[in-house]
Design goal:
Radius of gyration: 22 Å
Number of strands: 10
Structural class: alpha/beta
Largest sheet: 10 strands, mixed
Number of helices: 13
Distance between the termini: 70 Å
Length: 457
């Protein structure tokens, strides 16, 4: 009898665990409205809910370039180009080995990582633990900074280790992975010369190297304009002019063919809602005091949509379209899959581009230990595929992917490996291989390409 009771209890417990697992999986795949309007949700964003200087690693801060850094990067460019030329296989061989690029798949890319070998110190891998804006909550969580290479500011661990974005072999490996995933356009996080996010250092001098390696793999590069200090209509005009003058002649510089046949550069503008529409209109409307329209520097400008009301601000501002960026279904209005159809309809009726952003999951508790609420489990790739499926339903001209290597927020599709240290056990992609998210991206790139052909018939 005792054995029968014990067996019954075990069966009951397993049944309860099974039911809980099913519920958690369903919530992860379709967390409708989860976190929207909650202090753990939109409170993370500037000028939405509570403002804080601890928002994230994409904040406005200014770091001046040191002379030795400029010299080092310039030398690095020469070495990289020579190395690339010496090791470059025939173009036909590359084309045979890799999937064809899809220039309607844009992927967000970050070049802000550093290590002692190439940078004299760790950069970004040693990210600080960001305190919650409420001191009472902040006191319940650890403080301090990560200590690479064993302890990094990420919940997953890169196959390439705590790498430097200046390492030519790393840049090449990244280009090869993005090309294998059948993406076509790299959306490069960008700050003006001499400026950086508050945890990084200036990276504009890396752009020529990235362009060169992108060209080798038949990829294109566009720019993700970060919210640098004093960003307004005047500085944006100056910086767009700088980018086009300096990089616009490179064969890897991306230009998008519009419905009217024009070939225009494209710029994604992160945290665009922080600047009022009247300021943007000075730059982006034909009658604006700083207008860039119908000049040699005219381009397609894509704004970040977070809240529903932003769609009207984006239209008034003179932007050419909107993207959603966040890989967290339910975190914001824009990132919630069930809102994409209405956003696409709004864009269609107002001659705007709608670019949904899909991602494999989200987890940032390595840098925001209090933010479990916004974690989105990958469910062995099912979350990613659900996002792609939702994006294809609205028939967008372009799909953006968050991200290739934003390791701090756990949105990366870059190869990751299992790793355990004395203090940390990192997440990984098991039971799949390190390249599983590259393969899934390639699968959906092909599916999108085939469906798009049918849309246009």
């Amino acid at each position: 009898m005792a054995r029968f009771r014990r067996r019954t209890c075990i069966i009951l417990l397993l049944f309860i665990l099974f039911i809980c697992s099913i519920m958690m999986a369903l919530k992860t795949l379709r967390p409708d409205r989860a976190g929207f309007g909650d202090p753990f949700g939109l409170g993370l964003l500037p000028e939405l809910q509570q403002r804080t200087v601890h928002l994230d690693n994409k904040q406005n801060s200014l770091n001046r370039v040191q002379g030795d850094t400029v010299t080092h990067v310039n030398n690095l460019h020469s070495i990289s180009v020579n190395t690339m030329k010496a090791s470059m296989p025939p173009v036909n061989q590359l084309e045979e080995e890799l999937s064809s690029p899809n220039y309607n798949f844009h992927i967000f890319y970050y070049s802000w990582f550093g290590n002692p070998q190439f940078d004299g110190k760790y950069i970004h891998w040693n990210h600080p633990l960001l305190p919650h804006w409420d001191p009472k909550i902040a006191n319940n969580y650890p403080k301090g900074r990560h200590n690479p290479p064993e302890d990094i500011g990420a919940n997953f661990y890169p196959e390439l280790g705590s790498y430097s974005s200046k390492d030519p072999s790393v840049i090449e490996a990244h280009m090869k992975q993005m090309r294998a995933a059948s993406t076509g356009v790299i959306v490069l996080s960008w700050y003006p010369p001499g400026m950086a996010d508050e945890n990084g250092e200036p990276t504009d001098d890396l752009v020529p190297v990235i362009l060169d390696y992108a060209h080798k793999y038949n990829l294109k590069v566009t720019f993700h304009i970060e919210p640098y200090k004093d960003r307004d209509d005047r500085s944006m005009y100056h910086n767009v002019k700088y980018i086009i003058d300096k990089y616009g002649g490179h064969p890897a510089f991306y230009r998008h063919k519009t419905s009217t046949g024009r070939l225009l550069p494209m710029f994604y503008v992160y945290d665009s809602y922080v600047t009022i529409p009247e300021i943007w209109a000075n730059l982006l409307t034909v009658s604006g005091s700083q207008t860039i329209r119908n000049t040699p520097y005219d381009a397609l400008f894509i704004a970040l949509l977070v809240e529903e009301r932003h769609k009207h601000d984006i239209q008034r501002s003179g932007f050419d379209g909107m993207y959603t960026y966040f890989a967290t279904n339910g975190f914001s209005y824009g990132s919630s899959h069930h809102n994409w159809a209405s956003l696409k309809a709004f864009c269609d009726s107002n001659n705007l581009m709608f670019i949904p952003s899909v991602g494999p999951g989200y987890i940032d508790t390595s840098i925001r230990p209090w933010n479990n609420h916004n974690t989105r489990n990958r469910v062995n790739g099912k979350y990613y595929e659900t996002a792609f499926s939702a994006a294809l339903l609205v028939r967008p001209e372009i799909i953006s992917i968050t991200s290739f290597n934003e390791w701090h927020e756990g949105t990366q599709i870059e190869k990751a490996v299992p790793k355990r240290t004395g203090q940390v056990v990192y997440l990984d992609y098991k039971p799949h291989k390190p390249n599983v998210y590259l393969e899934l991206t390639q699968k959906w790139s092909e599916k999108y390409r085939k469906e798009q052909e049918q849309w246009l018939m």
